[in-house]
Amino acid sequence: MSDTTISLNPNLNASSISIDPPVSVENQQPDRATPQAASPRNGKARTIWIDIDNSPHVPFFRPIVNELQKRGFEVELTARDIYQVCELLEFFQLKCKVIGGHYGKHKVLKVLGNCMRALQLVPTAASFHADLALSHGSRAQVLVCKILGIPTVMMHDYEHSTKTGFIEADWVFMPDVIPGNAMSSQVDHVFKYPGLKEDVYIPGFVPDRSSLSALGISPNQILVTMRPPATEAHYHNPEAELLFAEALRFLSENRLVRAVVLPRNQKQGDRLRADWADLISSGMMIIPTDPLDGLNLIWYSDLVISGGGTMNREAAALGVPVYSVFRGKIGAVDHYLAKNGRLTLLESIKDVRTKIVLEQRNRPSQPENNVRPALHTIVDNIIFLLEKKCPATGQTPR
């Protein structure tokens, strides 16, 4: 288990999105018309503790950190050493203390690992004197906050994640397409935001083709970005691996295709190199050895095939054709995207060959510059909780 401090440049550029009114608590409207700045408590700026529990949460929380700091709040970051979290923290230059790691696929090991990480987090969390704790699914953080009496906000965008009962967060934030009672029995403690989780950071994306030059993809080739299924996740269905393998076989039949495959960890990468050595040696399949800017890769891809929710939704948010081989319970966000033609669900081997369209896409010079109020809605509601719901005692009223 790691307990490391990554200290890099914390001065990040704030994302430029117009400020919109906050989305209400389910069936309620926050009683204010304009976004608030931080009001100090006892002469000290209010402090928010963010725990990063998985690699997609690094780019997600970066603009939230920027915006909170811009409005005068102190932000403290911790993270779990899992998948590419540490590499992304370095890539995005986020100052963060890394505590704990991955605890395996088995549910018992996950529970024990979360309890162990919670114990490791306690001294650091206590030193923050946080007024509010925020994460996107960190159960260890919620457990620590129950011990220390810190109000908690947990964000979700997949309603079929494992419920933990007694360590539920005080407040839940989630996309507005998910039913209000899907993640909490207390619907008056559920805040919703418009759009996707990925809409928080997509508006700050600026395409840069030079970052992909090392891949050696020529302009006449079809670039496909692929993400294998999360085989160690509790929701994994082995059918997804069969669909992913069939997709690779299908792509290999087209000489113009170059597939950039992004394994989730070293173990998965080693397995892919062993199973698909012939495709790698031919140059058709590329497993990058250095970290890549994922949004750039997706933007310059002609299509994306993925077993992971975040990459699927990043592609959908960027307007890139995306095919999902995920075979767990389909969440409301993916149902919404599929219904609106922004995501294609592959549900059988036949679908791989009948639904995937292998062609170069007509790519604009920039992503659509449409209004995406998710970031400021989330930040406004964090401030609303701090100013209206979290008194100086640090306890959230029921």
Question: Could you please describe the fold and organization of this structure?
Answer:
With 398 residues, the protein is of the alpha/beta class. The protein folds into two domains: 3-203 and 373-389, Rossmann fold (3-Layer(aba) Sandwich); 210-355, Glycogen Phosphorylase B (Rossmann fold, 3-Layer(aba) Sandwich). Helices cover 33% and strands 15% of the residues. It contains twelve helices and 14 strands. The chain has helices at residues 57-70, 85-91, 107-128, 139-148, 239-252, 266-275, 277-282, 294-299, 309-318, 332-339, 349-355, 374-389; strands spanning 3-6, 47-52, 74-79, 96-99, 132-135, 152-155, 171-175, 190-193, 222-227, 257-261, 285-286, 303-306, 322-324, 344-345. An eight-stranded mixed beta sheet has the order 1-4-3-2-5-6-7-8, sandwiched between helices. A six-stranded parallel beta sheet has the order 11-10-9-12-13-14, sandwiched between helices. The longest helix is centred in the first third of the chain and has 22 residues, at 107-128. The protein starts with a strand and ends in a 9-residue tail after the last helix.
